[in-house]
Amino acid sequence: MNLNGKIALVTGASSGIGAATALKLAGQGVKVGLAARRIDRLQDLVTQINANGGEAIAIQMDVVDPTSVQGGVDELIKAYGTIDILFNNAGLMPASDIETLKTDEWARMVDVNVKGLLNSTAAVLPYMQKQHSGHIFNTSSIAGRKVFPGLTVYCATKHAVTAFSEGLRLEVGKKHNIRVTCIQPGAVDTELFEHVSDKGYREQMEGLRDQMAFLKADDIANTILFALQAPDYVNVAELFVLPTDQPW
Length: 248
Known about the structure:
seven-stranded parallel β-sheet
């Protein structure tokens, strides 16, 4: 895909992988819709992109709310006319043992990590079908391949993302000329650990920083560019990206 002039929507764009990817896309000439709940952070990112010669708009969006998602997509279409790239990146990673029954955290993970991705996909897909082209990226995780104690529900949501991504590719790839890529990072230096309310698991996860060199958000953004810039007949279906010294 030639990226110059393309239109992208990035959810979870206010920090981490989402923000890094938005910057990379804008640097390649992509017009970016930055979507998240924290509008102040998005506006700061718009300012940064504009200062570097790119173009972006801030879209306050809660992926859990289908009305909010549809309104955000409508705002992007009104501004730029179409959408070529969707990056479903919004996600949460609380950690706790199942027996602690933090059901509110379970529900929130399912709402954001799974339903939020479905909401965004449903709002964007008709535009890609109409133009018979597009590229959808979904952020899964190493937790979409393996299961870890304390992250059981999180792993379940990311396994769901991996399965949905493959099914979506099978259904819309040939029929509608839409590529689908599932990003599966290992340890990345982002805000995910801040969602962990369990003190023991929070300390355990923070301790991992002493055991390996975490990936940077830019590393994942670069893998997304790699998949986007592949020839149109190539669909990079999965990208499993780990620190070199990650042992699990």
